[in-house]
């Protein structure tokens, strides 16, 4: 048994293991042998190198044996492996095939438990791929099936509630996410033979703590309680050297930080860091993020200390460290790390933000919403509170999360959006806008980086007053970027469509450029009790596959024309301006292609020019990103472009240095194109190794199913 969804260990691999459809003497696919071999690979920590070839071979054997049930077992395990590797695009056809086989085998009638388990795995894969609407439908089907066949204390129900919570959290429905986690916790505590030492109970407490932190600082006290319960369970069960323990420690530290218990935060972060190093090593994002949080907590603690007390408090801090370490038992032979990452560890690692004294626009928006927006709705608009979505999406650097201190010269102010259905807008829209406009924007930032809005807590005496920058004309009147909107109006202002075009409306999809789609799908949704806004927003992420393939073909065409064909010729002609424009077109086409290859539903779209490379760098640092090295190569091309195109003449260099720079750029263009072809081969989008990428276009377009002329090159 392995962890096959991102939740509690489930016997996915037990799905009809003894069924066999082969009656004509063909070789029997041995499911139990397959599972033992896969377990051995994970136990030996060789999954990254050996798991995929093993799974592919097993699939071939199951298909040759005509054993659909055995094939379904292999597909279930493949789903879990691909998900753990972040290969969500590769998982989509596996998910659909597993559902098709389960339906073909009539699992819904003959084995409802196997049907429910397959639905759960499929939904979790869809959720991980960012296909939230499909995931929610599958989860609802799974819940209907599971509640009818599983016992009320079956831990698979807890796994289902946990995963549904993650779906609601990722789509901004935090109250629903909290309810799902509470159901999971109640079920686990009832079913556990010893809840005081149950890792799944501990992990659920950790998830609750992290979710409460996401809901706002007012929940910090409750978050601390859940985090403390999780730590107690890990210690009772002697699980302190588990990778999941680091998530519990980091969650506890973050809750303490938000509650102002800085000394406890430092202690928690330091111990989390030691566990992360033991389990993952130092060269990981998880380690670096936690180290940054630790440093911020230390600085906040140091600033809080009066100078006359620093020596004494330092002594107390050392004593607290010794006390904390004394509570943790040494590693025993019984304490084993799971062979696959536990879903709680994944949630914890990704949910703990880096503490920073720089106030981002999204953080300012969320604080403004929590302090003044929620009370506004809970008061005069309580009858509509469960129907109004809130968040910050659309135009502005802060909506992409790329704003910094240089972004505050305009449009920097506390703001959020409220999105209403047409019916609700007609009833309360104008008055709600007036009440929103009347909210105080006055706030301060204390030395710990915490925001305090007027009337909601007092800042320290040393707090810095935060100023509000002037609004540009483009952010006022009918072009306003915040306030109250009809859902359809909001998206129409950005895209000219009130909702995403139909999946077969290819011409409309092709009319939407990358930057427009990025603007419509960026930002954060703080609350969406109805789910209508999130569903509309998500619709713009679901680019039809035929459109994606058509755009990949177009980008290949521009890369070949501008970078491989015209750039060398313009350089030979000494037409530096034309060469520079060729580089510009090549860079833009390549950057767009990287996002398209990595699937917009998972990574979003390439934003407008100002933030293209910020987005590219961020994408390149993600695990399992395809063509991750292209960003650095494009920046290298841009650095040398002046010397290559103009010989550095503007810097008094005359023509020297132009030839080596030009040769380096041309070689880098060819290397990028070669990397792209290698990726197309891995994706199964081509059979050709030709590196002049124009010739790859027919191979890519062969995968377009529609015969619509707008999707195909001439």
Automatic annotation (TrEMBL):
InterPro entries: DUF4037, TPR-like_helical_dom_sf, TPR_rpt. It comes from Bifidobacterium catenulatum DSM 16992 = JCM 1194 = LMG 11043. TPR repeats lie at residues 158-191. Residues 509-611 form the DUF4037 domain. Keywords: Repeat, TPR repeat. Residues 314-342 have a biased composition (Low complexity). It comes from the Bacteria. Residues 300-347 are annotated as: Disordered. This is DUF4037 domain-containing protein. The keyword Repeat applies.
